[in-house]
């Protein structure tokens, strides 16, 4: 186990280093000067600005500085908003995005598992067809389209929910649903197929023969094993919730990190784009690692250290 | 009571009957096709796809308007006999733009899938066939690359390299091929130890021939499924980027950029968002269903 985690950590660090390096060099070839504005700056001021942001140093020194900064969790200043650093933006926006993301993950997992289990128990009956039809639709509708439709019909036309902003629990419902719809559909399909596989096992027959109620069999015997693939999906789920959040926050005007990220893309605020990219990459890689480790702990059949893959 | 043989008689079964082939023999792909045809949802997806592609080719010529001519006297018109899908804020015909967008979206999807196919098959094929150190190194490289968040990388490249069709396809394929290479590698690993490959080797076939003649054709099923499922994800990515304002530059239209243009006007001119949005969903839906149907049809366990 320790060996496995060590190996995974090493890969993670290499991936991160690649990301940081790529972002750094991409930032350097990016068109346009960060201080470009309508007025031409006097050369002295520009030189001062360059010195302030460390841009007058040779590239290799800037690069090592950047690496050190990332390691010490300092993503530098924003080029567009002089008084703000990327760290400020993250500490301000991330809690909001985190809350929204957690709500969405909760909806996606809870409803997805519920639908999947129902579909599997009623295989090839109308309940199965209905839930799977909904699931295919859910996978086919991108989150930003789902969000605009929900906003138009439920908020603008019917006025059931607030249209936008981030003030009360009511404001969180539509964005969370829009964000959760796709993953929920995916989880439902995943749960259904693995449930069907598990239900065909002999130990389910044994449980039935013992006279256990179908509720106990479903929950205690079938679901415990059927939900393992869902656990592996939690890593990609985090990724899709994170990136989905950019557009959802834009549509609903939620002041989260995704919203800042989208604004910084429009403003071409390079340091913010790079900083947030690196920040999100770290979160994602850590989340995926945690999920994989958790999977190894939950499922005793899997021996991580053995590494049967690639043998 | 003694039972003797004369109490039994042969009713008609003969030894040679066991060898008789009662059903017409089917090639693998014919069998797959028959099973695919039985899947109503998948067939529906295929028909839908055919319609969408037909409209993408001929749709822009069905009206007298072209996709980039502004007509400021007719802006934001609701759908009517004149403009079937209405007009946008510059008075451009939405019907023409929608199908012009279809061309671009489908082109991006198919191009990304094809590039993924070539890189993925080459990478996964070599890694799986060579095995050992080569395999280890190549797949570790793929593992590390796949650690890079896909959409973030695409966004970053679009910001830095500038918006355009080429950049978009490049950005999508940088990490997109990894999935394909893993699948091909798995297939090749499984197939290369089979007897017919050994037989071919014994007959003196070289690596290229074994790969091209035996390993790749026999992996075609999973490759095809992966490709069909890559297309909708590329179309989704394109739409997503367009929606973030990182899509193609005007006057070119893609569904994503049209949806992005339509969003601010949602309250008053909802059709400007709805038409591109509906077609994004339909296309992704069609590809997904066809891909699912293919996977089920190729799965020998689903044979009845």
TrEMBL record, chain A:
Q: Per the record, what is one GO cellular component?
A: plasma membrane
Q: GO biological process: what's one of them?
A: transmembrane transport
> What membrane topology does the annotation report for this chain?
Multi-pass membrane protein
- Could you list the residue ranges that cross the membrane? 9-30, 98-121, 133-156, 168-188, 230-252, 272-298
Arranged from A to Z, the UniProt key words for this protein are: Cell membrane, Membrane, Transmembrane, Transmembrane helix, Transport
Where in the cell is the protein located? Cell membrane
Per the record, the domain of life is Bacteria
Family annotation (InterPro entries)? BPD_transp_1_N (IPR045621), MetI-like (IPR000515), MetI-like_sf (IPR035906)
Which positions fall inside the ABC transmembrane type-1 domain? 94-295
PANTHER family associated with the record: INNER MEMBRANE ABC TRANSPORTER, OLIGOPEPTIDE TRANSPORT SYSTEM PERMEASE PROTEIN OPPB
> Belongs to which family?
Belongs to the binding-protein-dependent transport system permease family.
Listed name of the protein: ABC transporter permease
- The organism is Cytobacillus horneckiae
Automatic annotation (TrEMBL), chain B:
Residues in domain ABC transmembrane type-1?
102-291
| Gene Ontology cellular-component annotations | plasma membrane
The record's InterPro entries line, in alphabetical order, gives:
BP-dependent_transpt_permease (IPR050366), MetI-like (IPR000515), MetI-like_sf (IPR035906), OppC_N (IPR025966)
SUPFAM superfamilies found in the cross-reference section: MetI-like (SSF161098)
**PROSITE patterns given in the database record:** ABC_TM1
What's one Pfam family here?
OppC_N
Q: Where in the cell is it found?
A: Cell membrane
Transmembrane spans:
41-62, 104-129, 141-161, 223-248, 273-294
Stated family:
Belongs to the binding-protein-dependent transport system permease family.
Q: What's this protein's name?
A: ABC transporter permease
């Amino acid at each position: 186990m320790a060996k496995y985690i060590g190996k995974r950590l090493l890969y993670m660090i290499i991936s991160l280093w690649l990301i940081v390096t790529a972002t750094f060099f991409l930032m350097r070839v990016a068109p346009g000067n960060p201080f470009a504005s309508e007025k031409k700056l006097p050369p002295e001021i520009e030189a001062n600005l360059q010195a302030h942001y460390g841009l007058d140093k040779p590239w290799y020194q800037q690069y090592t500085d950047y690496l050190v900064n990332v390691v010490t969790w300092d993503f530098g200043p924003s080029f567009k908003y002089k008084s703000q650093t990327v760290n400020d933006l993250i500490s301000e926006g991330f809690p909001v995005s985190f809350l929204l993301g957690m709500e969405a993950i909760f909806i996606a997992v809870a409803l997805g598992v519920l639908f999947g289990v129902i579909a599997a128990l009623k295989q090839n009956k109308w309940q199965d067809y209905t839930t799977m039809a909904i699931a295919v639709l859910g996978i086919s509708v991108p989150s930003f389209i789902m969000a605009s439709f929900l906003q138009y019909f439920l908020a603008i036309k019917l006025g059931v929910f607030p249209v936008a902003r981030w003030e009360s629990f009511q404001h969180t419902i539509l964005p969370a649903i829009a964000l959760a719809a796709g993953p929920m559909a995916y989880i439902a399909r995943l749960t259904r197929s693995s449930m069907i596989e598990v239900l065909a096992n002999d130990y389910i027959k044994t449980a039935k023969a013992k006279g256990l109620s179908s509720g106990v069999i479903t929950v205690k015997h079938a679901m415990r094993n059927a939900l393992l693939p869902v656990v592996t999906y939690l890593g990609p789920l985090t990724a899709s919730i994170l990136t989905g959040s950019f557009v959802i926050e834009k549509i609903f005007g939620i002041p989260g990190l995704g919203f800042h990220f989208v604004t910084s893309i429009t403003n071409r605020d390079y340091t913010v784009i790079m900083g947030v990219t690196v920040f999100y990459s770290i979160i994602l890689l850590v989340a995926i690692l945690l999920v994989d480790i958790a999977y190894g702990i939950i499922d005793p059949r899997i021996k991580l250290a053995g590494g049967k893959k690639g043998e | 009571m003694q039972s003797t043989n004369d109490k039994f008689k042969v009713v008609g079964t003969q030894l040679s009957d066991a060898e008789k082939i009662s059903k017409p023999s089917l090639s693998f792909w014919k069998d797959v096709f028959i099973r695919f045809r039985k899947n109503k949802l998948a067939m529906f997806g295929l028909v839908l796809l055919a319609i969408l592609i037909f409209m993408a080719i001929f749709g822009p010529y069905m009206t007298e308007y072209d996709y980039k001519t502004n007509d400021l006297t007719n802006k934001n018109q609701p759908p009517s006999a004149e403009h079937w899908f209405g007009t946008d804020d510059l008075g451009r015909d939405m019907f023409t733009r929608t199908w012009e967008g279809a061309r671009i979206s489908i082109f991006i999807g198919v191009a990304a899938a094809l590039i993924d196919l070539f890189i993925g098959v080459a990478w996964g094929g070599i890694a799986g066939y060579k095995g050992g150190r080569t395999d280890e190194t190549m797949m570790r490289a793929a593992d590390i690359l796949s650690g890079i968040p896909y959409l973030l990388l695409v966004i970053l490249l679009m910001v830095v390299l500038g918006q355009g069709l080429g950049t978009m396809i490049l950005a999508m394929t940088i990490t997109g091929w990894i999935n394909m290479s893993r699948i091909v590698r798995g297939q090749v690993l499984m197939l290369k130890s089979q007897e017919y490959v050994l037989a071919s080797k014994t007959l003196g076939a070289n690596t290229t021939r074994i790969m091209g003649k035996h390993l790749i054709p026999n992996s075609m099923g999973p490759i095809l499924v992966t490709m069909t499922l890559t297309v909708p994800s590329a179309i989704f990515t394109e739409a997503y980027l367009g929606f973030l304002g990182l899509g193609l530059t005007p006057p070119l239209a893609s569904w994503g950029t049209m949806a992005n243009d339509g969003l601010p006007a949602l309250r008053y001119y909802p059709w400007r968002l709805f038409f591109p949005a509906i077609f994004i969903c339909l296309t992704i839906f069609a590809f997904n269903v066809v891909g699912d149907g293919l996977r089920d049809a190729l799965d020998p366990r689903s044979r009845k």
